[in-house]
Design a protein that fits this description.
The chain is of the alpha+beta class. The protein has three domains: 105 residues, 2-Layer Sandwich (Uridine Diphospho-n-acetylenolpyruvylglucosamine Reductase, domain 2), CATH 3.30.43; 111 residues, Uridine Diphospho-n-acetylenolpyruvylglucosamine Reductase, domain 3 (2-Layer Sandwich), CATH 3.30.465.10; 228 residues, Vanillyl-alcohol Oxidase, Chain A, domain 3 (3-Layer(aba) Sandwich), CATH 3.40.462. The radius of gyration is 22 Å and the shape is globular. It has 15 helices and 21 strands. A hairpin with an 8-residue loop joins strand 1 and strand 2. Helices cover 26% and strands 23% of the residues. It binds flavin-adenine dinucleotide (FAD). Flavin-adenine dinucleotide (FAD) binds next to strand 3, helix 4 and strand 10.
């Protein structure tokens, strides 16, 4: 048994960690665990067939299995207490590029970091990158991840042409966008089976640099106005909100928006190969950090300096991929900075027209001086047909809050109610604390997803802590 957590380092649970190296080994493991007589009809998932059996008594097979990538989801999505977790990052990383079409076929364990390191020098970029490139292809599809380009390019699943899924009977099924099971898997949080390979379309680039415009806003309303009026001019946009600012400055932000730089853009800025890309992690967070390091004083000071050092307006800045897309990746294990209790990520989306909900949330956080190290606002465009896919057209806000902040649980429960009342939803890949009813209210296609999942996995083999907690 290995103790596993998500990136937030809250709620560790033990599981048997299996490390399949190939799609065949995945299929063999799925068959073996699926055939465990202790499991059938004896699962501990009250929402499905189970009866809450004691995992120690019936053996780990009774708790089923779930795939795990690089464990970058913040909560318990890639955990399975008392059961099996398939470490798919162990799947031999391999990928091929068709340079004519830009289609990449990759094993599900390949990380976006590995892909970018190989693709960028050849003039290609992944279609969607989350705020870290240390995620696997399998994890990117299972959470249907979004990036700063959602308003233009939608989420990862929109670019997937086919995927191979090992289902509960151990068979490998090749699925495409015309299959319901494909769209139950995109955003399905690993609960339809194990993705072992996928083919997706990449984006041509001329350089490994970004051409970036930076702009500061005075308050939340100005942030929303500027983003609404001008986001369409950029492929990638994001607003970082200084949550520690109060009064008339509540919601003041630094907007960072850009596009892949052309060769012409970088002339005079870049010597050597304009497509060179060989990122390294130079810093690492210490193994143990005292609790309470991130508090009102330190985060407030960081926020004030960050806002003050951003230019009021600067156009045509040339930046590398890491500072633009993945600034946190420069420090390995940065989540340890939150101390022994870890951190809670809270990310929701509300539809356009529900800006008042956004104002209420930002206002409440700011008034209570809730410490959030990184508060990020984005505009989403059209979503995918993924039934449990998170993005929908609207505003999405993500917060990083140290777990254990007094009153946090109650405050987030209030936010849950506001978000659902506004027609919004929470992001399952970030969640570690919400309730089944909030998820059911936010995902109106949950029943449709369940029917497809149940047809593919009638005995409830695929389970996770998240699935049990939220009665998926
Ligand atoms: C610093 C940081 C920034 C982030 N920024 C963003 C962002 O901007 N946008 C965004 O959308 N997300 C973001 N995330 C979240 C992250 O992109 C997702 O949680 C992603 O799913 C993590 O991928 P992973 O490989 O680590 O998967 P894990 O976290 O290990 O697993 C996530 C889910 O995928 C499933 N899964 C993993 N591999 C497979 C497989 N082979 N087959 C089937 N299911 C599988 C798991 O069962 C689980 O449900 C961020 C996370 C961090 C730490």
């Amino acid at each position: 048994m290995t103790l596993l957590t998500g990136w937030g380092r809250t709620a560790p649970t033990p599981a048997t960690l299996a490390r399949p190296r190939s799609a065949d080994e995945v299929a063999a493991l799925v068959k073996e665990i699926g055939a465990d007589p202790a499991r059938k009809g004896n699962g501990a998932d009250p929402a499905r067939k189970g009866n809450g059996a004691d995992p120690a008594r019936v053996g780990h097979g009774s708790r089923g299995l779930v795939a795990r990538g690089l464990g970058r989801s913040y909560g318990d999505a890639a955990q399975n207490a008392g059961g099996t977790v398939l470490d798919c990052a162990a799947l031999r990383p391999s990928w091929t590029l068709d340079p004519e079409s830009g289609l990449v076929t990759a094993s599900a364990g390949t990380s976006l970091h590995d892909l970018m390191t190989g693709l960028v020098p050849r003039g290609w970029f992944v279609p969607v990158s989350p705020g870290t490139r240390y995620v696997t292809v399998g994890g990117a599809i299972a959470a249907d991840v979004h990036g700063k380009n959602h308003h233009v390019d939608s989420s990862f699943g929109a670019h997937v042409r086919s995927l191979t899924l090992v289902t509960a009977d151990g068979s490998a099924r090749v699925l495409g966008p015309s299959d319901d099971l494909f769209w139950a898997t995109v955003g399905g949080m690993g609960l339809t089976g194990v993705i072992v390979e996928a083919t997706f379309a990449c984006v041509p680039i001329e350089t490994s640099r970004m051409r970036v415009d930076v702009e500061r806003t005075r308050d939340l309303d100005e942030t929303l106005d500027v983003m609404t009026a001008t986001d369409d001019r950029y492929r990638y946009t994001v607003a970082w909100i200084d949550l520690m600012a109060r009064g008339g400055r509540t919601g003041r932000s630094v907007l960072t928006r850009g596009d892949h730089a052309t060769r012409e853009d970088v002339r005079g800025h870049v010597r050597g190969d304009p497509l060179a890309f060989a990122p390294r992690q130079r810093l690492s967070a210490p193994p143990r950090v005292p609790d309470g390091l991130l508090n009102r004083a330190t985060v407030g000071a960081f926020n004030a300096v960050w806002y003050a050092k951003a230019p009021r307006e600067r156009r045509g800045l040339i930046q590398g991929i890491t500072p633009f897309f993945h600034p946190l990746d420069a420090v390995a294990g940065w989540n340890r900075m939150y101390g022994s209790r870890g951190l809670v990520q809270y990310q929701f989306v509300v539809p356009f027209g529900a800006e008042d909900t956004l104002r209420r949330v930002v206002g409440a956080l700011s008034t209570r001086r809730v410490v959030s190290f990184l508060t990020v606002l984005k505009r989403f465009g059209a979503g995918t047909p993924g039934m449990l896919s998170f993005p929908m057209p609207g505003w999405t806000l993500a917060l990083d809050i140290p777990a254990g902040v007094p009153g946090l649980a109650g405050l987030l429960r209030v936010f849950d109610e506001w978000v659902v009342a506004a027609g919004g939803r929470l992001y399952l890949a970030k969640d570690s604390r919400t309730s089944a009813s909030v998820v059911a209210a936010g995902y109106p296609r949950l029943e449709e997803w369940r029917a497809i999942r149940d047809a593919a996995d009638p005995d409830g083999l695929f389970r996770s802590d998240l699935a049990r907690r939220l009665r998926l």
